[in-house]
Structures are given as structure tokens and as C-alpha cells.
Specification:
The complex is a heterodimer. Chain A is of the alpha+beta class. Helices cover about 30% and strands about 25% of the residues of chain A. The chains are: A alpha+beta, B alpha+beta.
């Protein structure tokens, strides 16, 4: 075959492959997906002496030719449990409908990360998954060729069947046992994308049947003999500590078996969830502040002070922005504000633990099994290999399930009660004991001289942390000669963390709204302005700049073309936004109409460059979800604090977007044969900006603050 | 604790529970029918939707003591083979992302389509607005309900 991509492993084949004949028939191939997914990783243990349980992912091929792929990565709704096995199945050259996918366990001896986060599973998995499939296929072909006494290179495969030049056939099941005894080949040939039969086709969610028929799948669905349900009373405000508690009323609730204090928390154990929750409500506790009890009003002043102060960490600096500002014809400066946001996974936080003398057994929804198992071992003073952790499907993650606090609580309560327990957060617990998207302010200043943007300064004031990694080098870094990014932060008692597309989920709105205003100031078309600027970064040699001027331009052009930019129908107002994050380029065109004087988002046209499309149906679902999630939180998301207490506890007052408020999202992909990147996050960041820019066209007012709804209602057009 | 006998998915189930226990927790903790999900506990998210005599209700608000003469249907009993036109439409459209809310969505839609066999797009959007999908698979839910409606009529 011409143009095939020959892959020679850059590290020992045994880094990730071990084969064995199963007593029950068929073979199993173990591979270390996460090591294999990080090509530069150096294994720290003796690969030659590994046992099967040292691997974290497996392919099993039965004597009948059925293939089972155990996927190690946690599934939070991002679709990797479907897409990752598709890539293996493609190179293995089997029929997708003969592949069964199962969730692998966390492997305690694993030496690389086993994480769902950052939209990286497909990007990192691409090479390794293909190599694994192709290597396995080659071993099966070699076994068949030996049996026939022919040269393996003359054999072909298709749909799990090997054919030789004479037209004789053997299916994979007929040669699996011989294949398992062969040497693992050092070199394999990967398919050319034009030969793909699985990648690029629609594969529905592998758990679809179980989901639509209500089978147990999620953390809360897990049960064990003798398990007690646990509701935990935690400090009602950030900065408070427990002083006293009275459990007399809790203990008389039917079903309550025990009340246990641990740290500043009180656990109520019961034979059912309802009794545990009732028991918790019956607890009487007193609290005292041992740290400052913070309020949103304080945060607003503090963040503004940070923006106004001269001190800041400079994260990137090109040229001299101050000089550009001094010499400018015009300087435009705008400040953007975002509130805290809870994650609100629809499945509230929960975890099962059974701590016994033999082991610590943990089961539940977790994005970071390895980190969590290690922290539980440390908390209980146990060896890490005594911790067994099983991952369930997750009823949403969005970053909240990175933190594992709920698993630590379950482990501690089980250890104290000497019983198997499941800690269950109520919705109120989930919303008020959060690890929130922090409140942030951005100030963007730009200078214009001779109708050109000459300087750009982005300043971030954030709570607890700042934009990480390469974010300071995203657009418009490299496009504007004098460019600076600086940041400062304030340490708060309110716990904060990653929330779907951390930092960029709001930064993109600020920046893309600002560019819309810059375009007006320059009297230029908003889309053309972005395209013109991108020309400046196309030849960059700067390794920190990972977004591509060309790919971004193509993506912008696709969205503008599909959405009919500039040709809106009467009564339709268009807004544009484009953003690169998590290695994927996205552009979005929002259409807003006025209804009873209020702007309503009717449609969004999204264009995406994520390289090769592994599973189109899954990819479209991720982008549609990301866009609507982005719009929903930009429009309505708002969590404030008064004296350390969150203002909302449940969905009666905390507003999430609902179907009747949802636009239709049309998704288009830039077609190319570049390695695929992830989609769990990148669809979200541009959405807020596209909508804010369309609302400006509709009502003539700029929005600088999330949630938009406050200003939208204030600016209602009467008449 | 008193004993109750409930008619769920065509068979009778006897158990003991406090009289104020919501049906949701009886289903999940006592009867091991975990398809009905807990999301908010205050009838705002729809994850716990079941049918009482064919009508969609929030099981987190239904006290067990009130239900002895009712015919209760959960996602497990919506169809014998898991092939209700809505379940089939959900497969066809590949609706779920995380999947947690979907049983509740299907139960709400099933009750709605009994009332309105050929709904407009706007009627579907209004009927389904009480069910949250945090992954925002709303476009596909809307499409699947429309497909099922067409197949059923």
C-alpha cells in the first residue's frame, strides 16, 4: 500500500503490550494506555517482569472473534468510553458492532495519570490507541501466515477476517491462541485515513441501552451488603468551625443508626438515604468563625484594587505596551466581571467506602482515581496498594469530580464506623460545599494608531489562582506588536477549582466582546478584523504560541460562511466569536431576536477544527452541549456570598438553562487529516462572547458582566 | 415503621418505611430500582420523574403513604423490552452525554405524548422545560421527542 504511515515505537513495545492465552479461551492483550499515551514517559519499573494486573487497559479477543476493550479513562459524559475504543477497533480492523466496551478499573500500580480532564484523552491517546490496535492485528496476521506457510505481508484483513493470496480465510478467533505466543512486532503499519471504516462514522454512546432503560451505572446506583447511607453536616459558611452539636433529635429518626463527628463535620448514618438526610436536618450545631467570613461585596472591591494596582505577575510581554498607549490616537479600556459558579453536576457528589483490616474499597464517580486513592491511603495511614478503587460512570463532572473530597469523607466515616458507607450529598450540600469557579475580573486595554491596533494589555484579577499554562500565549499573542498579559490574585477562604474550560470559560467572553468593540472603534467588520490580525501570527517561531493562524482563520471563515455573516434576515441580529482552547479551534456565530423587548438566542452556528473527527455523533453532541452550557452560565449563572455563606442552595433560586431557553446549535467541522484533539471543553468558551455581541446589535448596549440576565432585564426595550 | 404495598410496573411490592418517605427513596434504597434518579429533592430538576396512572410526577415529592391505590410506572417498566418509541428515538438520535437525567426526560416525554400526540416544536420545548440536562443535550432531546411523536401517531 502506498502512503501508509509506518510507525516505529520510540520506546520498547513491551512498555505497553503483553499477551496471554486465557484459560477460558481467547487471548488478552494488556497495555498501559496512559504510559503509551505519553510518548516521552520513562517507565519507572521493570517492564519485563510486569504481571497482567500491572496494565490498565486490555483488549480481549474470544475464540469466536468477539473483541472486548477495557477503557481505563473515567467517563463523565465527554464520550471517551466510546471514542477511544473506536480508535483501537479501527486499526485492529474489526467490525465495531462486534466490539464490547467495558470500564477498566483504576490500577494502583499505574505510574502515569489516569484522569478525565483538560479535553486531552483523545489527543494523547491517538498514537497509542492506533499502535495498540495495529500491533495486535499484525500478531494475528503473523499467526495466520505461519499457519498457512505464507509471507505475512501478502495477507490482508477486513472485519476481523484474514485473507491470503489464494483467497483462504481465517477469522481472528481461529488464530488468537497462536498469536498470543508470538513475539510482539517492533514495527507496524498504520492505516491511511482514507482507509478508515470506523473512525469518522457515527458510533452511539456505548452505555446508551443502559441509560435509556434505567440500569445501574452511576455512583449513587452502587450498593453493598450492610451499607449505611451517610448525610454529612458541614460548616454552613466558609471560614467557620464546629463548636458543639446535639444529636439527640437525629438519633430518634427511624433508620438512623449512628452519628459520628469527624473534624468540623458530623456524619449521620442510616439504613436509607431519606433517614440520613432527615437525621442531618435534626442535628443542632453551633459554629464560630475562625477566619474572615467573606462576602461578594468584599471580593468586588479587592479584585478592582488588584486591577488598579501596579503590582502584577507579568505572564507575557512583547514590545512596549506603555509606549504604544502613550503614542496612541485612541485607547480603549474595558473591565469584565464574572461571579463564582457552582458545577451543579446533576448527580450530586457521592462515594462508597468500605475500610477493613484487609483493604480500603472505594467505589464511585471520580475524575482523578489515582490522586484520590493516594490521598485516602495517606488519610487512613494505609499503603497505597491496599486501596482498591472502582470508577462508575459519572452524572456529570465539569471539574468538580477532580477533587475527591467526597471520597475522603466516605473513607473517614467508614473507618470510624467500621461499616461500608455511601456518603450522599443533598443538592444543598452539593451547591453550598462546592469547589467553585472563582470570581474573576479582566481589564483589557488596547491602543489604536493610524487605524491599527498597536498595543494590548490583558490584566487578570482572580480569586485563589490565575490563568495557567499557555493561556497568556493564546490569541491575540503574536498578532499585536506590543502585547502584555499580567495577573494578580487574592487568597480566599472560599474553595475554588477547575470548572469546565478553567479561566477561558470567562476570558474568552471578555476578549471576544472587546474585539467586537475594537472593530466598531476601527470601523471594521468584526470577522475581517480577526482574520487580518491572524495573518501576523502565521509565520511565528514562538513555541509558546500553539494556536494556528491558518486553522483559526479557516474555522472563522467556515462559521461566517455557514452562518451567513453579514446577511442576517430582518429581525435577526448576529454576533461573532472565535477562540482556541484545549488544542481545538472554534468559531461561533450567534443569532439573537427580540421577543417582547428582550433578546432571545435562537440559533448558534459553530465551526470547529479538532483535526480528524473520530466519532461525529459524539463530537456534535459535545459541541452542542458546550455551546448551550456556555450560554446558560453566561446568561444566568451567579453565586454570591454573604458572610461566607453561598446565596443559593438549590435549583429553585439557582437558574440553569432549560430547554425552552435553548437555541438550536448547528455544528460544522473543518475537514483535514491532522491528529485529533479533544472536544469536552472547547465549544464552551466562545459562546458567551458570540451572544453578548449579538445582544449588542439587538439592543445597542454592551455587556461587561456575567450573568447577562441582570443587564438584559434592565435594558429591556419597551414598546 | 408501617408496611406499605405499592403497585409498581405491574407487580406489587411490600416494604416498611416512614410514612413521609418520598417514593424516590423507596424505589432506590428499598426496592433497588435505581433508574429513577435523585437530582434536587425539590421537584425542580425532573431527574426523579415517574408516572402515577400514566401522568408524569416528581417522585421526590410523593409521600409513600399516599400511593397505595396508584399505578406507578418507572423507567424500568416503561416498556417490557426497553423499546418504547421514546427509548428507540433516544437510541436513534444518540441523545445522552453523561446520561444521568435521561430516564427522567423520557418519563416526562412519555406522559406528554399521551396528552399531545402531535406536538409542535414549541409545545415540546415547553413540555420538557421542567427537566434539567446539565450536559445540555437539549437539542437532541427535542429531536428525539419529535421523532417518537411521529412514530407513535
Amino acid at each position: 500500500m502506498m502512503n501508509k504511515e509506518e510507525y516505529k515505537f520510540t520506546f520498547s513495545r513491551r512498555n505497553f503490550l503483553k499477551t496471554s492465552v486465557l484459560a477460558s479461551g481467547g487471548i488478552i492483550i494488556g497495555f498501559n494506555l496512559l504510559t503509551a499515551c505519553k510518548p516521552n514517559a520513562t517507565p519507572s519499573i521493570d517492564i519485563e517482569n510486569l504481571n497482567f494486573n500491572d496494565f490498565n487497559a486490555f483488549i480481549k479477543i474470544s475464540d469466536e472473534g468477539y473483541v472486548t476493550i477495557y477503557s481505563p479513562n473515567p467517563e463523565i459524559g465527554q464520550g471517551v468510553k466510546t471514542a477511544m475504543p473506536m480508535i483501537i477497533a479501527e486499526e485492529l480492523d474489526v467490525e465495531w458492532n462486534k466490539v464490547y466496551v467495558a470500564q477498566g478499573k483504576y490500577n494502583k500500580k499505574e505510574y502515569q495519570r489516569q484522569v478525565a480532564g483538560g479535553s486531552q484523552s483523545i489527543r494523547f491517546g491517538w498514537d497509542a490507541l492506533r499502535q495498540t490496535g495495529a500491533t495486535t492485528r499484525q500478531m494475528l496476521v503473523n499467526a495466520a501466515a505461519t499457519k498457512w506457510g505464507v509471507d505475512a505481508s501478502t495477507c490482508k484483513t477486513s472485519k476481523g477476517i484474514i485473507t491470503n493470496l489464494k483467497g483462504e480465510t481465517l477469522n481472528y478467533g481461529e488464530v488468537v491462541k497462536q498469536a498470543a505466543l508470538l513475539e510482539v512486532p517492533e514495527k507496524v503499519v498504520l492505516k491511511n485515513p482514507s482507509e478508515y471504516t470506523i473512525i469518522g462514522t457515527n458510533a452511539t454512546n456505548v452505555d446508551l441501552d443502559k441509560i435509556v432503560t434505567g440500569k445501574p451505572l452511576f455512583g449513587l446506583d452502587f450498593k453493598a451488603v450492610g451499607m449505611q447511607y451517610v448525610s454529612v453536616l458541614r460548616p454552613p459558611a466558609f471560614g467557620q468551625k464546629l463548636v458543639t452539636f446535639d444529636d439527640s433529635q437525629a438519633k430518634i429518626v427511624n433508620g438512623v443508626s449512628e452519628v459520628i463527628k469527624f473534624g468540623d463535620k458530623v456524619a449521620v448514618l442510616a439504613s436509607n438515604t431519606w433517614a440520613a438526610m432527615k437525621g442531618k436536618k435534626a442535628l443542632k450545631a453551633t459554629w464560630k468563625a475562625d477566619q474572615k467570613l467573606e462576602s461578594t461585596n468584599d471580593h468586588n472591591i479587592i479584585l478592582t484594587n488588584i486591577l488598579d494596582s501596579k503590582d502584577a505577575d507579568v505572564r507575557r510581554e512583547d514590545g512596549d505596551v506603555n509606549k504604544a498607549f502613550l503614542e496612541a490616537d485612541t485607547v480603549l479600556e474595558r473591565t469584565y466581571h464574572s461571579p463564582f459558579l457552582p458545577h451543579n453536576c446533576l448527580e450530586p457528589m457521592n462515594f462508597f467506602a468500605n475500610v477493613t483490616a484487609e483493604k480500603v474499597h472505594l467505589v464511585g464517580p471520580i475524575q482523578t482515581p489515582q490522586w484520590t486513592a493516594g490521598r485516602v491511603a495517606k488519610l487512613l495511614d494505609r499503603k497505597e496498594d491496599e486501596v482498591e478503587l472502582e470508577m462508575t460512570r459519572m452524572g456529570g463532572g465539569f471539574g468538580r469530580r477532580l477533587y475527591g473530597d467526597f471520597a475522603l469523607e466516605a473513607a473517614e466515616v467508614s473507618s470510624l464506623a467500621k461499616k461500608p458507607v455511601q456518603v450522599v450529598f443533598s443538592r444543598e450540600d452539593d451547591m453550598t460545599d462546592g469547589i467553585y469557579r472563582p470570581s474573576i475580573k479582566y481589564r483589557i486595554t488596547a491602543s489604536i494608531k493610524n487605524n491599527k491596533i498597536t498595543g494590548y494589555h490583558l490584566k487578570e484579577a482572580a480569586i485563589n489562582g490565575n490563568m495557567y499554562g499557555l493561556i497568556p500565549h493564546f490569541f491575540p499573542a503574536g498578532c499585536i506588536p506590543n502585547y502584555k498579559v499580567s495577573s494578580g490574585n487574592y487568597k480566599s477562604t472560599i474553595t475554588t477549582g477547575a470548572w469546565r474550560a478553567p479561566y477561558t470559560n470567562f476570558l474568552a467572553f471578555a476578549e471576544q466582546s472587546f474585539f467586537d468593540e475594537l472593530a466598531s472603534e476601527l470601523n471594521q467588520d468584526a470577522v475581517q478584523l480577526r482574520i487580518d490580525l491572524l495573518q501576523n501570527v502565521k509565520e511565528t517561531k514562538d513555541k509558546n504560541i500553539q494556536y494556528s493562524g491558518k486553522r483559526m482563520e479557516d474555522t472563522i471563515r467556515l462559521a461566517a460562511e455557514k452562518g451567513g455573516w453579514g446577511n442576517a434576515k430582518e429581525g435577526v441580529f448576529q454576533g461573532f466569536s472565535a477562540y482556541y482552547s484545549h488544542n481545538t479551534h472554534v468559531a461561533e456565530l450567534a443569532e439573537v431576536e427580540l421577543k417582547n423587548g428582550l433578546p432571545v438566542v435562537k440559533k448558534v452556528i459553530a465551526a470547529v477544527d479538532c483535526g480528524i473527527l473520530v466519532n461525529p455523533t459524539g463530537a456534535i453532541n459535545q459541541v452542542q452541549g458546550g455551546v448551550i452550557d456556555g450560554i446558560g452560565h453566561a446568561m444566568y449563572g451567579d453565586l454570591t456570598f454573604t458572610d461566607g455563606k453561598p446565596s443559593n442552595k438549590n435549583f429553585d433560586t439557582y437558574r440553569l438553562i432549560r430547554m425552552n431557553e435553548t437555541p438550536q446549535v448547528e455544528v460544522h467541522f473543518v475537514k483535514n487529516e491532522l491528529s485529533p484533539t479533544g472536544l469536552g471543553e472547547p465549544g464552551l468558551p466562545p459562546a458567551g462572547g458570540a451572544v453578548a455581541n449579538a445582544i449588542f446589535k439587538a439592543v445597542g448596549k454592551r455587556i461587561y458582566k456575567q450573568p447577562f440576565i441582570h443587564q438584559i432585564e434592565k435594558d429591556k426595550i419597551v414598546g | 415503621m408501617p408496611n406499605y404495598t405499592l403497585n409498581i410496573n405491574g407487580s406489587s411490592h411490600t416494604f416498611s418505611a416512614d410514612k413521609d418517605t418520598p417514593l424516590l427513596w423507596v424505589l432506590r434504597d428499598e426496592l433497588n430500582m435505581v433508574g429513577t434518579k435523585f437530582g434536587c429533592g425539590i421537584a425542580q430538576c425532573g431527574a426523579c420523574t415517574v408516572h402515577l396512572d400514566g401522568v408524569a410526577m416528581r417522585s421526590c415529592q410523593l409521600e409513600v403513604s399516599m400511593l397505595e391505590n396508584e399505578e406507578i410506572t418507572t423507567i424500568e417498566g416503561l416498556s417490557e423490552e426497553g423499546n418504547h418509541p421514546l427509548q428507540e428515538a433516544w437510541r436513534e438520535v444518540d441523545v445522552p452525554q453523561c446520561g444521568y437525567c435521561q430516564a427522567g426526560q423520557i418519563m416526562t416525554a412519555a406522559s406528554f405524548l399521551k396528552e399531545n400526540a402531535s406536538p409542535s416544536k414549541e409545545e415540546i420545548r415547553q413540555a420538557m422545560h421542567g427537566n434539567l440536562c446539565r450536559c445540555a443535550s437539549y437539542n437532541r432531546i427535542e429531536k428525539a421527542v419529535a421523532i417518537a411523536a411521529k412514530k407513535m401517531s
